Each structure stands twice: as C-alpha cells, then as structure tokens.
Structures
1.
Amino acid sequence: MEYTQGVRFDSLGLSPEVMRAIEKKNLVMSTPVQAGCIPPMMEWKDVIAKAPTGTGKTFAYGIPIVEHIDPEEESVQAVILSPTRELAIQITGEIRDIAEFKPGVRTVCLYGGQPITKQIDQLKRRPQIVVATPGRLADHLKRRTVRIETAQTAVLDEADRMLDMGFIQDVTHLLDKMGKRKNLGMYSATISREVMDIAWVYQRDAAEITVREDELNKPDIKQFRMEVAANEKADAITKILNETGFDRAMAFCNTKGSTERVSKFLQMQGIDADCIHGDIPQKKREEVMDRFREGKLRVFVSTDVAARGIDIDNVDIVFNCDVPDENQDYVHRIGRTGRAKHHGVAVTFVADYPAKMRIDNIAQRTHNEIIPVTFGDDGKLTVIETK
C-alpha cells in the first residue's frame, strides 16, 4: 500500500512511556513510513517498506520494538542489522531515546573497528535489543558472546545497501539462527533483486509499504551547478559560505585524497572543516561526526562510502566537490539537506567536460532541475541565463 501522509502518534495506541518519549521530541504527527509500518509491526506482521532516505524509518520499526520488549526478560528479543557502523550508532541513539521512559530496556551496539572486549562487557549486561553490523554480529556468535535464537523481531535497515555491500551470506546465516522470530522488517530505499530474494525466503504475507517521493515528502532542495577549476573548489565553498552565512555544510568528494585536500584548504582559509574516509580510524571518524552533530564543525567533508548510513539532520547546504559516478549517489548526497520540511541547497562543481556530461545525465535521469550559476562581479551567486 502507498502512503503519502502521516497520522497523529496518539492515534496509534502507543504506551504512555513511549508517548512521553515522542512528546519530549516535540513530535505530534508521524511521517508516512511510520504511519504505514507501526501498526503491522505492532501486530507482529512482516513488513517490507520502500521509502526515501530521511523519512523516519528508525522510529517506524523502533517504536514497535520498544513496545514489545519485556524488561523482565534478559534474553535478546530484537536484532537490528545495519550496513555501516555509523548507521548502527545512529540507530542505537534513537532506540535509546524511544526507550528513555521504559525502565529495564537495554540496547547494545556491535560493530567492527571497536575493541571486541568492550562489546563483550556490554553484552554481559544482558541487552534485549542488539543493533549490529552483520560481520561483527557473526563474529560474536562464533565467540558465543551473544545468543540471538530468542529474538522475536529482526530488522534489516538499508537492506539494499547491506546486500549490495556483500553481506548476503552473513544476513541469511543470522536470520537462520533466529528460530523463534515472529516478524521481519525490511527497510530499503530501493527494492533490489537481492532484497526480493530475502523477502521471498524469510517473510510471509508481508505488509508492503511504499512511500513515494512526491511533493508532500520530497525534500525542498534548490540545486545549482557551477563551473569551478579543480584547484579552486575550496575557494568557491568559502565564498558561498561567506555570502550565505550557512553554518552546517557537507562536502562530498569521489576520492580519499580529495577529501583531505578540500578540508586542508578550507582550514587554511579559516573555515572549521574536517574529513572522514575509509582509511581514517573509526574512533577519529566518530569524533568528527560528533563535532558536526554538536554544531562544533562547519564543514564535514566525506566520501560516499564513509558517509553511508549517516543520518544527520539540519544540514544547510551540500557541496558536490566532484560529480558522483552514480546517479543514486547524487540523490543520496543532496538528500542530506532539505529534511523535515526545511529548505535545502545543493551546489555541484563542474571542473571539466566529462563532469559536465555526467551532471547533464544526472539531471535528466533523476528529473531534477540543476540551475547553472556563477560568481557575479559583486562576488554573489548569479544565475546564468540559458536560451
């Protein structure tokens, strides 16, 4: 079924404890994906949900999970799988927010790049909710530091990316271990062949929820393109930030080297910037993301892979320092801004003819209007009139 609008949270029959947590976040209306997924998951039904990034999927499955947890029972009752450690950390924070007023509900986050001994200590506290990347959870199962056969609910968040990243064997192995599972929720921006294969084997009569990216929930993003020489991208970012006064910017690059160069040049110009990419240790990546979330970092520079699964709200502007190779990456990048009914801005730098060809193709294939701009004589952004 297709959902285009939300409902009031107080119409969903939620407990006073969970309603209190929702009200603390000043939320009254659910998003469409929450309206579609919460009722069937509350009834222990399987769910397969296709919804754009940034539409509130964590609360869509997190609320039913927290409602179902028996705080007196110390075995694992729910397992949430995430493709990346960054998303796993984000999910854990939101689940803990939902469970804030429900004493005895414990959540653990398991991912690679963190000492396993620290996670083993956390598992000794007998958490009922396990949020994990597939590889690290499989590792804990081998070590017998966690048991998941008691889990009643399993969720695959960003299922398409998880399976694209080669986790299909780990995921099926983990699902096979959950013999007492009552329901499986699969949440995905796209329903790929691999997602359908998992659904076919592991779900029965699943409620199908589709949230179309229509005018009601499509992000409000003004998109621009600008011809900028390869060595002048940091200068262009600085000029635009000085003109707009925006405080929270994300800049995407195609390579690790580019992220380093752009963040270093921005720092030289007095802009508080830092970067993450695949070669940066996990602890440093978390520190950079925390600084950005807390408003202590003005420009957060990243590659696509490192930024996967990071759910950061209130980004004022997104810069594409390089035109992405994949159309879907463009959509994911600009989707960091314009969330929750806020206006967003995205600027893509075009340094050469191949980049111009790619951005033309992206505009055509994704049905986005990407307006050409330049710096006027007064230093302000000026739209280039096209005939």
Note: The domain at 9-210 is CATH 3.40.50.300 (Rossmann fold).
2.
Amino acid sequence: MTIVEMLGQSGVLTVMGMGTVFSFLVIVIIAVTLMGKVVHALGADKSDQGSAVTTPARPSAPQANSAAKTAAVTAAITAAVTEYQKTEN
C-alpha cells in the first residue's frame, strides 16, 4: 500500500468518523427537543409553588462592614506574602 493510498484511506475514515459524530449529535438534539415538547404538552414543567426559579434575598450589609472585610482581606494577603518571602530566602 502506497502513501497516497494510506492518505486517501485516512481521509475517508476521518470523514466517516466526523459524519458519525455529527449524526449522533443531530439525533440527540432532536430527541431533547421532542422530549421538551412532550413535557411541556403534559404540563409537567409547571411548578406547584408558582415560580420554579426564585431569587435569593440579599442581606443588606452596611458599607462599614464591607470596608472592614476588605481591609481584613488585604491585611491577610499582605501577611501571607511577607511570610512567603521570609521562608523563600
């Protein structure tokens, strides 16, 4: 078998493999779409509690608390870098 024949065969195998993967993905997309339509038609996508997605309540933190946290994080990072530099030398 010559190099040209091997390259031709590898090209055919590549195209067949990519075609197989593409076909499988198309089948999966069609199946998921159909299942979504069936679930929607049966009404199984409705939640008993009203909205299925709820937004969590945000705690209202004062600005001073946020500034204190930022200062604490900055101090911790500075201490860690200083300690790392001491152990490195």
Note: The chain has a mean pLDDT of 86.
3.
Amino acid sequence: MQIVRRRFAVRPARYPNIAWPVWLAVWVLLTAAAFVRLDTPAGVLHGQWSGASFAEFLTQFALGGWYLIPSALLLVAANLIDWRSLSRRRLMLAYNWTCLAFLVLSSVGLSGLLVNVLKYAIGRARPLYFQDFGVLALHPFAFDARFAGFPSGHATTMGAVFGVLLLLFPRRWTIALAITACLASTRVFVGAHYPSDTVAGFGLGCAFALVCGLVFARLGFIFRPTPSGLPVRKASFRLIAPER
C-alpha cells in the first residue's frame, strides 16, 4: 500500500482514450434486447429446461468465493514471507503473484459489492416467481432474496473473470469469453435469473476488471499503459520462474 500511495502521488492520471460511451451503449442495448426477446420465454419455460441438473453443477463455479478466497489466502501468505531473504527470481515471482491476487480481489470483489447494492436497490423478482409477479416486478429495497434478480451476481463475477483474462491473455479472448459466458448463462437455466440479468451483470463485471487494469497500468503493476486502448501485460510479469 505504501508503493501504491507513492506511485499515485508521482504519476499523473493519464488514461487511454477508450470510447466508454460506445461500450456503455452496446451494453445497454444488449441488456434491453435480452429483456425484450428472451426474458418472457425464459420465465414461461422455467423448470422445463433439459439438463438443468448439469447447469446446477456448473453454476457453482460462478460463485465469487472460487476466485476471492484463493486470492485472499495468497495475499496472506505473501505477507508472512520475509521478502528480504528471497533471491531476485523468487522475489519477482512473489511480487507478480501478489499483484495478480490484488487484481482479482479488486475486480471480482469491488464489482461484487456494487452488484449486491444494485440488485437489492432495484428489487427485480426472479424468474422462479414469474407466475406470481411477471417479468418486470420491481420491489426496491425490499431486502428479500426473491427480489434480487437484476443484475446477476454470478454473472458479474464471470464478467470480472473474463475481463481479467482478457487483459492477461488478449489473444485467447474468444476461449475466455466462451467459458465465462457459458457459466454465467447457467443462472438462466437454474431459474435464478432472466437473460437480461445475466447480460447486465456480465457487462458490469467486465467493465470493473478493465478499469482495474487501467489503474494497475498507471501504477506499473502487471501492465504498462498504452496511448490508446487497453493496457498491455509487461514482459516481466511471469508466474513461473524461467529456466536458467
């Protein structure tokens, strides 16, 4: 944290000129399209999906704990190590793993906090109660799990994971998107969320991860800044020690 404060003080906030309004418009339009075209059919078909039991299994991997707990434990372990006793190679490994854990905690954790505030503030009924409340029943600040559908927390987690993978492995973005979107979509098949809930949550989580990546690039953690576009992973960021 001392390094963060020191670097924030000496490095000006110069972020690349990303067309955020365009991406925001795309996100809103995709969410609206899912609401108009898919939400009602999803509510009508609730409980009739084939393979719902398999979706129940897969959806567990969209829980934030799978990503937050290992990252938190990694930070705890890093703080128990005497870094002064490490060789240069091991010191860089410890530094890189710590930065990665911090990135995951920031992306998944902060987006998770926001989505929980939003879903209870909006209070949309889940598709489990489609027959009782319909596709657009809002009960703001009801603080009832039945009315905590929009956005999806699991999908937000998957969006954040996709954003982190996109930053780290930009050439493999299609594979990362296919896996994370598949896990996010399981929330529809188990009847916990409408399609628009998952689209909104996925976009929210991805945006948080990308913003965290921009901040990390400013600090010099993992990424280096670029004049335009997303930050680029630094050549020194390695999670496995190179062979001598």
Note: The chain has one domain: 19-233.
